[in-house]
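Saturday, quiet lab. Running sequence design on the C-alpha cells for the scaffold JK sent over.
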C-alpha cells in the first residue's frame, strides 16, 4: 500500500490586521497550494505582539520578528525560521525576505520631489525602536539629496501618552517645519495621525503639507481625508519568496542568499500628494496639463499649445524643476497608469494600453519592459505572487 505523503506544517507569525501582513499571508498561501503545506496562523498577544502557540509542532516558521524576545523564543523552537521584518535587532540573524528600505524611501522622495517639493520630513513611531531602519533609510536619502533631516521626535511623551497629547505634539512639530513640506509616514495609520495634527495646526493638505505612506492601504488609505498616497510594497511577493526560502531550509538545501530585499512596485497616488509646488506659473501649468491629459495620448506639441513658451525653454525649466523632460514625464505618467491597471484590474493588456494613452500594445510593451524590467504580463504575475522570477528595480 502506497504511503500517504505528509503535509509540511508551517507557522505564520504575521499580523493579519494590516495590508502588509495580509499580503504576506496570501503570498505564502500561493506557495503552499503547490507545495503540500498546511499553514497555521498563530495568535497575537493583547498588545499586538506575536507569540508561538503553546505545544505547536511543525516544520518551519515565517515571522515578523519585531523584538529580541520573540527572536529568542523562535530560536528555542529549533526549527527553520524566515524573518519578513526589516528590523535589525541585536542577536536576531534569521534569513530574511523583506522590502528594500532604501528603494522604498527613494521612491517616496522621487514622488514628492516630482511635485516640486524640496523640504521632505519623516514621521515614524519613536516608541517602536524596531522601526529605526526606516528612519536610517530616510536619513541616507537626505544625505543623497543634500537636504537637512527633518525627523519627528516627541517632546517628553512616554509610551503611555494619550492620543490627544500625541496629536498636540505632532502639531507642534509640524509648525516647526519649512513650508510647503512633504511628509513621509512609516504606515497609513501614522499618516492619519499626521493628517489629524495638520488640522489642529491649521495646515492645509496637500497645499502646505503633502503626505505619503511607506505602504499602500487600499481601504484605510481611502477612508482618511484626504485619501493618502502610498508606496506599493510587493507584500504578496515577500510572502511567496519567504515561503520558497523556508522550503529550501526545511529540505536542508543551501540558501542562495540569506537576505532578499525586494523593490517597491510603484506609487498609488491620491489626494494627499496632489500638489504642484512651482514658482514658475507656466511650468506649473505644464505639469498639471500632463498629469490630467497624459493618458489621452498627448505629446510635447500638445503641451506647447497649452503653454505658450519656446520648446527649449520649456524643456530646460521643466527638467530643472521636475528632474525629467516633458516627454519623459508624459511617458512616465502613462506607464504608471499601465502599472496601476495591471495591479488593480483584470483588463487585457491591449485594453490597458489603450486606456493609458498608447495607440498600440506593441508600442507600450517594450517601453514598460525597459522601465520596469519585466513585460506587463510578468509584472502582473509578480504582483499576484505567482512568479518565481526576481523583480528588478524600476528604471
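Result came back. Writing it out in full:
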Amino acid at each position: 500500500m502506497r504511503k500517504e505523503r505528509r503535509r509540511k506544517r508551517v507557522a505564520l507569525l504575521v499580523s493579519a490586521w494590516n495590508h502588509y501582513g495580509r499580503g504576506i499571508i496570501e503570498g505564502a498561501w500561493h506557495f503552499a497550494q503547490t507545495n503540500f503545506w498546511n499553514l497555521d496562523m498563530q495568535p497575537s498577544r493583547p498588545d499586538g505582539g506575536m507569540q508561538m502557540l503553546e505545544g505547536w509542532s511543525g516544520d518551519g516558521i515565517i515571522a515578523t520578528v519585531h523584538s529580541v524576545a520573540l527572536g529568542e523564543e523562535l530560536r528555542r523552537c529549533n526549527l527553520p525560521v524566515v524573518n519578513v521584518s526589516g528590523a535589525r535587532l541585536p542577536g536576531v540573524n534569521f534569513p530574511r525576505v523583506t522590502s528594500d528600505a532604501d528603494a522604498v524611501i527613494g521612491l517616496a522622495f522621487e514622488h514628492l520631489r516630482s511635485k516640486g517639493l524640496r523640504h521632505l520630513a519623516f514621521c515614524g513611531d519613536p516608541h517602536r525602536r524596531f522601526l529605526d531602519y526606516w528612519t536610517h533609510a530616510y536619513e541616507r536619502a537626505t544625505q543623497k539629496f543634500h537636504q537637512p533631516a527633518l525627523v519627528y521626535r516627541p517632546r517628553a511623551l512616554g509610551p503611555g501618552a494619550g492620543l490627544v497629547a500625541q496629536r498636540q505634539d505632532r502639531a507642534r512639530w509640524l509648525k516647526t517645519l519649512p513650508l510647503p513640506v512633504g511628509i513621509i509616514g512609516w504606515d497609513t495609520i501614522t499618516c492619519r495621525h499626521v493628517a489629524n495634527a495638520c488640522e489642529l495646526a491649521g495646515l492645509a493638505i496637500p497645499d502646505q503639507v503633502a503626505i505619503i505612506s511607506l505602504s499602500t492601504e487600499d481601504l484605510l488609505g481611502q477612508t482618511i481625508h484626504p485619501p493618502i498616497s502610498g508606496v506599493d510594497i510587493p507584500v504578496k511577493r515577500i510572502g511567496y519568496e519567504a515561503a520558497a526560502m523556508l522550503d529550501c531550509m526545511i529540505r536542508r538545501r543551501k540558501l542562495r542568499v540569506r537576505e532578499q530585499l525586494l523593490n517597491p512596485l510603484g506609487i498609488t497616488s491620491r489626494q494627499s500628494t496632489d500638489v504642484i509646488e512651482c514658482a514658475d506659473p507656466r511650468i506649473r501649468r505644464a505639469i498639471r496639463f500632463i498629469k490630467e491629459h497624459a493618458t489621452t495620448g498627448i505629446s510635447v506639441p500638445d503641451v506647447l499649445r497649452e503653454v505658450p513658451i519656446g520648446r527649449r525653454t520649456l524643456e530646460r525649466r521643466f527638467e530643472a524643476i521636475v528632474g525629467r523632460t516633458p516627454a519623459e514625464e508624459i511617458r512616465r505618467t502613462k506607464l504608471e497608469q499601465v502599472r496601476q491597471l495591471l495591479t488593480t484590474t483584470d483588463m487585457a493588456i491591449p485594453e490597458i494600453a489603450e486606456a493609458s494613452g498608447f495607440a498600440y500594445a506593441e508600442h507600450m510593451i517594450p517601453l514598460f519592459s525597459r522601465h520596469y524590467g519585466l513585460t506587463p504580463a510578468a509584472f502582473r504575475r509578480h504582483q499576484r505572487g505567482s512568479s518565481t522570477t526576481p523583480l528588478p528595480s524600476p528604471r
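Notes for JK: The radius of gyration is 23 Å. The chain has a mean pLDDT of 87. Ask whether to fix the surface positions before the next round.
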